[in-house]
Amino acid sequence: MFLGLVQCGFPSDDAVKADFLKDNPSATVLDVGSGEGDGDTVYKHIRFKPAGSVAERDVVWGYQRTTSDSRTFRIFTKGAPTCHAPRT
Hints:
This protein is mainly beta. Helices cover about 10% and strands about 50% of the residues. Strands 1, 2, 3, 4, 5 and 6 form a 6-stranded antiparallel beta sheet that branches. A hairpin with a 6-residue loop joins β4 (about 55-65) and β5. The longest helix is centred in the first third of the chain and has 11 residues, at about 15-25. The relative contact order is 0.22. Residues about 1-10 have low confidence and may be disordered.
């Protein structure tokens, strides 16, 4: 899967959300943020609720630049979701 570079050298949060919803169409994405990384790699943290659940979950997807001069990124890893108690 590839997506275009949008801001600050990394995939935009909206592009990551769209990628996530392709794999999880019934989920509700609550937040997307950038974590650790460098100019060619970034780990995007996605907080979401599965359909019909009150528990929030976090997952980390890794994006990597396709080539050193490229403005596109590909997903190279999808972590396992972790569960959180509902926010009060």
